[in-house]
Amino acid sequence: MGGSGENQSTMNRYALACSIVASVITIIFGYDTGVMSGAMVFIEEELKINDGQVEVLAGILNICALFGSLIAGRTSDYIGRRYTIVLASIIFLVGSVLMGYGPNYGILLAGRCTAGIGVGFALTVAPVYSSEIASAKTRGFLASLPELGISIGVLLGYVSNYFFGKLTLKLGWRLMLGVAAIPSLGLAFGILKMPESPRWLILQGRLREAREVLSDVCNTQEEADSRFRDITAAAGIDGKAINEDVVGPPSNKEEEAVWKQLLIRPTPTVRWILIVAVGIHFFEHATGIEAVILYGPRIFKKAGVQSKSKRLLATIGIGLTKFTFIFISTFIMDKVGRRRLLLLSVAGMVIALAGLGFGLTVVEHAKEKLTWALVLCLVFTYLYVAIFNSGLAPVTWVYSAEIFPLKLRAQGYSIGVAVNRLMNAVISMSFISIYKAITIGGTFFMFAGISVVAWWFFYFLAPETKGKSLEEIEALFTRSARAKDEGVEIQPGNSV
């Protein structure tokens, strides 16, 4: 199954261009996340909001993104991956304009929530589109571009905080938030020049168009024909019909059955896949990354950095670290493998989070400023961000986008994204309350403990998918599920 390994291992430039354009939507999301960490410092000062309102402002985007992601799965199945990205761009545009206007807390929340719906759409469809465009050998690279886009956006947001923060209080944070409207508008037009996902076209019965797209995103016609045969087989299209230009799309009954196959009566294979997809999205945020990304200035203040300008400058270091290690991971994922990166990354996170917890605890109980403890906090903060973004961050999106069967992929993936946004919101909206209850050092010890649980989850439940076609991955989980049901011991990381 699958085309020539040699041909598939060479990056197709058109497929790369398609994935880069699709990933622009995640740059905008990353910008919104990064810029809010600094903007909140100024919003607190001008609008005189309390810590509870700050937590709501931080987390409301992800609550709304949860609903956006659940809608996006069905939307992308109905109107296609490409037009769903256009819709996400328009929603982002409206949200950015509202936040940039922001005359009061209510309007600001409304804009943040609107942008959140766009986030849900973006995080659901961009990785799915990239994974469906890519060949098996380059899918890890292309499907991780959206996560790279998020890191670029976060870095741009931090830089924006530093420079716009020098403007007047009334103007600075509004420009920080409103400027995201410009790339949103550009993307809405740019994505229309990209092709539709060949897998979505096949699901709609538009076989001739799918062949044309595959010819463009594959290096040889042999590879294109091989992928076409694999996808039509996975879609359940009769072998006699694959030479037709158009066949009948799935019936409404088949579309309605998707949720039943996912949640009500899943097969052992689908149940296994769903558990892994939900688990990896849960642990991505339950291990505390949003606390560092969104509340970096507060953490640095607790560590002993008193100057507002220096705290914003220190967050740029977080953004640079995030971008650097996501960039490296993007190039090594298809060589090292998803599973190995996951296990190494999460093990390193346990150490870094425990170190940060120790450093913050020392600072909190010290009666005078301890330079060594401040340096320790900074080092472990950057180390945590580096390790997280070298493994768990990019693998979450690549792995969960590639493991679902074709007919369940968009909506199954949307469930994972909904869990991702829910956990992001939980951490965003509770971090201040938690550290007030158990100390800020204790909070990071808690995240270290959760990371230990995550490591065991991935060790026992996440097989390696490196180098396999999307259709082969389904077979991998089918064998895994069958072996588990029959009581056969499964060696972690093997194809079973």
UniProtKB/TrEMBL annotation:
| Membrane topology value | Multi-pass membrane protein
The membrane spanning regions, by residue number, are: 12-32, 52-71, 83-101, 107-129, 141-159, 171-192, 272-293, 313-332, 341-360, 372-399, 419-438, 444-462
Q: What coarse category fits the chief subcellular location reported for this protein? A: membrane
Q: Which InterPro entries match?
A: MFS_dom, MFS_sugar_transport-like, MFS_trans_sf, STP/PLT_plant, Sugar/inositol_transpt, Sugar_transporter_CS
- Where is it located? Membrane
Query: Which Gene3D superfamilies does this entry report, sorted A to Z?
Result: MFS general substrate transporter like domains
- List the SUPFAM superfamilies: MFS general substrate transporter
The answer, when asked if Transmembrane helix is one of the entry's keywords, is: yes
In this chain the Major facilitator superfamily (MFS) profile domain maps to 18-466
Q: Which UniProt keywords apply?
A: Membrane, Sugar transport, Symport, Transmembrane, Transmembrane helix, Transport
Say yes or no: keyword Aminoacyl-tRNA synthetase present. Answer: no
Q: Name one GO molecular function term.
A: symporter activity
What does the entry list under GO cellular component?
membrane
Q: Which family does it belong to?
A: Belongs to the major facilitator superfamily. Sugar transporter (TC 2.A.1.1) family.
Entry-linked PANTHER family: POLYOL TRANSPORTER 3-RELATED (PTHR23500:SF453), SOLUTE CARRIER FAMILY 2, FACILITATED GLUCOSE TRANSPORTER (PTHR23500)
Task: Tell me which NCBIfam families the record gives.
Answer: SP
Protein known as: Sugar/inositol transporter
